[in-house]
Predict the structure.
Amino acid sequence: MAILELQNLKKYYATQKAVDDISFSIPEGSIFGLLGPNGAGKTTLLRMITGIFYPDSGHIFFDGKKFNPVDDIPKIGYMPEERGLYKKMKIGEQALYLAQLKGMSRHDAMKKIKEWFVKFEMESWWNKKVNDLSKGMGQKLQFVTTVLHNPKLLILDEPFSGLDPVNSNLIKDEIFKLAQNGTTIIFSTHRMEQVEEICGHIVLVNKGKKILDGTVSQVKNDFKEHIFKVGFDELPEKFMSHSFEVVGSKDTFLNVKIKDGNKPVNVLEEFLNHKASIVSFNEVLPSLNDIFIRQVQELKQEPHTELTN
């Protein structure tokens, strides 16, 4: 079941289409990557999903019903890239205030805050102010205040910004736990290696349009180039091949690209016929970073879609 479904969303700024007829759905309990270069329309999409902006046309469905900001916004947690903490307010009071804004009672909020503060080793922070925190410490606080009310949909925009590796892993582990417990997570970042590690589904937007979407494995398979990495005890002597061409080599490994009309078994047969001692044979799939760059560059020369009379 889809927790969130966008149907033909459009949002215009003056003559520019910031979001141009975008549709996709997000499976319940998934970690969903929202990707795109700067100015692609990601922030506008997120602001429509959270009720900050209204679409000019199209529909948003949340949990099987048409999105209703009054009923549904309390079920959403949003951690924007631009941080929204009150710099001169005490941290404990701020966490309590934000939790109560999301509908939690003071008693339940205090209990949850203490649990998260212990988990993140923040117990001594209660009377500190945000001004006193480093960027990484502020990031931990922002994450805690976003998840306190146990949202059904959690939106994280660059959640690891400013965090050291230890705290990045701490928050990453909590993201996985939240997803396992049924929270749906939209993860927006420019770090493609994090997307490959964390996300099950992705959508790529550019210049206001959806470029591709699907599971990470499906997208990578869609863009594969039939290249295989072959490992040997020692590199075989060069020979003319009918089934492949060598496109790279390092140490005792060759990268080979299968020619049209051939299959991996044909490559193996050719090497074995030449007495090569093969120790590994693996397909090389493109990284999400490679796919991202390729797709964005293909559209680089196209102007932003403009409204016409």
Remarks:
- Residues 165-180 form the longest helix (16 residues).
- Confidence is low (pLDDT under 50) at residues 305-309.
